[in-house]
Design goal:
Largest sheet: 3 strands, mixed
Order of helices and strands: HHEHEEHHH
Structural class: alpha+beta
Number of domains: 1
Strand content: 5-15%
Helix content: 40-55%
Shape: globular
Distance between the termini: 22 Å
Strand order of the largest sheet: 1-3-2
Number of strands: 3
Radius of gyration: 15 Å
CATH architecture: 2-Layer Sandwich
CATH topology: Zincin-like
CATH class: Alpha Beta
């Protein structure tokens, strides 16, 4: 376990977002990033096999599914869960790598890429 405070964790998350390739960052619209301690029960009910631990979640309408009626809405959210990531991390570098991976994974969902497709392209 590698424990850090919330502000430092949020900085790592935002550094991971800023490190995304420009072609992805420039297409991000109406999306915010947040850190929470743990996933909500509804997050598990929607998307996770029983017994899994969520490290992050995309809450929103994927970019390819946004139609003409998608306007004047609250931002979608990518939430990174601090506690499970810290518990898994061996040290600071490991935590940074895990956060970067989760941010990329959730950004893929924002762009409409499913978990099945991520497995197909060996993104796990």
């Amino acid at each position: 376990m590698f424990d850090i405070d919330r502000a430092d964790f949020e900085t790592i998350v935002m550094d991971a977002v800023h490190a995304l390739p420009d072609e992805f960052r420039q297409r991000i619209a109406n999306l915010e990033f947040a850190v929470e301690d743990w996933a909500l029960p509804g997050d598990y009910a929607r998307i996770t096999p029983s017994g899994s631990t969520l490290l992050g979640v995309y809450r929103g309408v994927p970019l390819p599914k946004r139609g003409s009626g998608y306007n004047m809405t609250l931002p979608d959210r990518i939430v990174i869960f601090q506690q499970p990531l810290q518990r898994m991390a061996a040290d600071g570098a490991d935590l940074v790598n895990r956060i970067q991976h989760v941010v990329k994974h959730e950004i893929a969902h924002y762009f409409g890429i499913s978990d099945d497709r991520l497995r197909e392209i060996d993104a796990y």
